Each structure stands twice: as C-alpha cells, then as structure tokens.
TrEMBL record:
It comes from Candidatus Nanopelagicus limnae. This is 3-dehydroquinate synthase. Catalyzes the conversion of 3-deoxy-D-arabino-heptulosonate 7-phosphate (DAHP) to dehydroquinate (DHQ). One of its GO terms (biological process) is chorismate biosynthetic process. GO terms for cellular component: cytoplasm.
Amino acid sequence: MKIINVKGEHRYPVKVGVNWTNEVKAISSIHNKVLIIAPKSIVSKYKLKESSGVKFFTTPEGENQKNINVLDKVWSKCAAEGIARADAIIGIGGGATTDLAGFAASSWLRGISWYAIPTSLAGMVDAAVGGKTGINARSGKNLIGSFYSPTEVLIDLAFLNTLPKRDLSAGMAEVLKCGFIADYKILNLAQDDDLDYQQLITRAIKVKADVVSKDFKESKLREILNYGHTLGHAIEKNSGYKLRHGEAVSIGMVFAAELSRKLSGLSDDAVLLHRELLRNFDLPISYPINKFKPLLALLAKDKKVRNSKLRFIGISKIGKPVWFDDVSPSTLSKVYERIAK
C-alpha cells in the first residue's frame, strides 16, 4: 500500500492499494452511524446491504446525481436516519459520486466526516483528492460547492479491472494532465505496453497533493490543475454530458497546448506529444467547428473569469505551467480552428 498525505484545512491520507470492503467495516466501527452514497450500479453489483449502523442512499448514474434535487434527497435521508455530527458519509463511486458525497457532508449540520472510495480512474486521481466538492448548476459545471476535505481517500485498484475501456481511457486524460503540468515520468510510463496503474495513479496523486497542500483554496497555484479544463468543462456541458469528463478534458488539453504554442512558445514537438498520447488512449482531440460560439458563451461563465476576462492555464514547456490572464475571443477563435473538425 502507498500513502500520500494531503494538507487541506486538515491533513489526510490517500491510501492506494486497500481492500475497500475492509475499509468500510473499519469506518463503520468508529462511527455510530454511516450513510453510504453510491450509484445504483455499485449497490446492485456488489450486493450492498444495510445494517443497523450502515444505511444507503442510491444515486442516479454519472452527472445526473450532481444536482440540487438529488442533494435535497440526501439531506432528507440524513434527517430520516438521524445522521449526527459524530457520524459519517462514505461516497463510493466515480467522481460525480464523491463530489456529491463530499458536498452533502460539508453542508449537513455544517459539516460531518466523510470518506471517499473512488471506483473510476478519474475519481482516483482527480475528483476524490483535493477537497473540492459540489454539484452542477443549470448554468454550468461545479458552480455550487465547497472546499471540504475527506477524512481519508481509499483506493482499491481492483475496481480498475471492472471498468470499460472507455472509462479507463477517460481517466488517463487526468493522469496525462499531471504529466504535462508537472511530472514528465508519467508521460513516459503512459507509453509502456503494460501500464503500471499503481505507479501512474500514485504519481498523479502526488502531483495533485503537492499543489493542493500549497494552495488549498485555489488562490493561484492550484489553478494549474485546471489545465485543459476551461474549454473541457464547456465542451462537457455543450455535449449534454454525453462525453466523459476526461474525454472533454482531452480536447481541452489539445486546445490549451495549441494556445500555449501561440502565446508562450510551446514547441511543436510538445503539442504533437499531446495529440499522440491522447490518441493512443482513443481519446478525442477535436470538436465541431460550428460549436465555437456556444462554447464561448459557456467560457464566459467559467469560475476563473475575472473582470470579464477569459483566463486559461497553459504551459511554456512540459512541466512549466503559465497563466494567460486575458485572452481575446478572436485569439480563441483562431486557436479553436486548430482543433476543429
């Protein structure tokens, strides 16, 4: 087992290589009551059953669970089960589930303990780590939320064996992001024929843990973790969430690389490496040309917009992030043509 410590408003461990059922038993032994939040697919697949101290809230699948209506039902379940401040919530599922579980924990009784057990690769390296919790608003992704760290993040690598290839590939987009912004070794490992997922996951989490520990509430440094996400979030919403988060971020990273070539002199080879590595995992790297105008409207609602100025994270070279604090729509339009189909 590998342990990476993260410092947010408190210090907590990310444990890579645990047995998740044993961890649930351990958590339930130290809290009077535990509410497990998990999608229907997880509950049915693993035949999860309630006991006197362990109750379940079953969510819809994917992004459909990240809305105020589902959150309100979680609150009602907490009230019905008498979840108190000494009790805990466990989120078992992909990134959408841990986002929801964390936000429910942060808002119930002004904050109770919660644990993240991510079942997707993207959840393991990104959503469950860092303390960002939340739901989607009608106007955009993750616009409602809080910074609220879990007590522990518990990663059982056996979940990877159950994932469809598409979900593994989508998760690799977040892993590769960490390589592009901070750890070239990840990019090398990603080119091996036999992927060492434990090392890839551990290194990606280490990148995020280092950044989050220095800038928990995203005053500036933490923004580098949004590489590819600014356009990616807009694409994800524009697609009606038919694209996986990692698929949208993949397109966003190629866009960010092209923007970096134009604005910070990123080399042609580095841009090509983005395209080649992402394509190796069957990830999309382009988006329809006629979608630019609606995407631009969505970009204007991005959390990083300041004083109506569109802001992006780029890189000047692999491992060297840069900030683009006022990018004109005309520049974005010209760069978008390089990823359009």
